[in-house]
Amino acid sequence: MTVESLTPPYRFRCWTPPGVYRPQTDTALLGRALRRERITRRTEVLDLGTGSGALAVEAARLGGRVTAVDISWRALAAAWCNARLNGQTVRLRHGDLGSAVPDRRFDLVISNPPYVPAPPGDGPPRGSARAWDAGTDGRLLIDRICATAPTVLRPAGRLLMVHSHLSGVEETLVRLREAGMRSEIVDRARLPFGRVLLSRLGWLRERGLIADRTSEELVVIRAEHA
């Protein structure tokens, strides 16, 4: 068991088994945006791709009625344990994005999806890489979330999603607007490349995704029905 300082002075107690994404800077960045939203005991929150459940637990701590979805049974087990470790209640659903909550509508959708561009391989990501690899453009899940969010949100609902500048921030804003949602960047942070991106520097340069810089900008996008 590890202890993550997700929201100082709040201490998030977190267990992350192998193959489940460990809360990092992007988690904290989205958590900061989450805390700026008005969340009450009547707010229905959907966490798409919950992973360790860190953001689902934070939304529950803020008072929301939280449903967390993941396609990984191991991630759901981690989210269940972390909700209990932190004294929160989170409803867990196994499935692929919105298909796990058919006919449900929510006030707030949050998501920290895999967004790291990856060299072409033999089929979809496997093993631990499923937590971060997202196709050659990094948009394997992002595009699907842009399409899914309007269908699971109530008329006044909002979406909060975090991802890297390497996976096309402007394209996400455009896709959400084309889906009938007002979208904007509400937070950002720059950080040095981690182990995975450093191992792909040559390929990223060949793709034109980076020049000499070895840092990435993370952004939080907020969208709501127009």
Task: Show the helix and strand layout.
Blueprint: E1 2-7, E2 10-14, H1 25-34, E3 44-48, H2 54-61, E4 65-70, H3 73-85, E5 90-94, E6 106-111, H4 142-152, E7 153-164, H5 169-178, E8 181-192, H6 195-198, H7 201-206, E9 215-225
Parallel strand pairs: 3-4, 3-6, 4-5, 6-7
Antiparallel strand pairs: 1-2, 7-9, 8-9
Helix pairs in contact: 1-2
Concise account of the structure shown:
The chain has helices at 25-34, 54-61, 73-85, 142-152, 169-178, 195-198, 201-206, and strands spanning 2-7, 10-14, 44-48, 65-70, 90-94, 106-111, 153-164, 181-192, 215-225. By secondary structure, the chain is of the alpha/beta class. The protein is globular and about 50 Å long.
Question: What does this 3D model show about the protein?
Answer:
This protein has a single domain (2-225), classed as Vaccinia Virus protein VP39 (Rossmann fold). Helix content is 27%, strand content 30%. The protein contains seven helices and nine strands; from the N terminus they run E-E-H-E-H-E-H-E-E-H-E-H-E-H-H-E. It has a seven-stranded mixed β-sheet with strand order 5-4-3-6-7-9-8. Strands 1-2 form a two-stranded antiparallel ribbon. Helix 4 links the parallel strand 6 and strand 7 (153-164). Helix 1 packs parallel to helix 2. The termini are far apart.
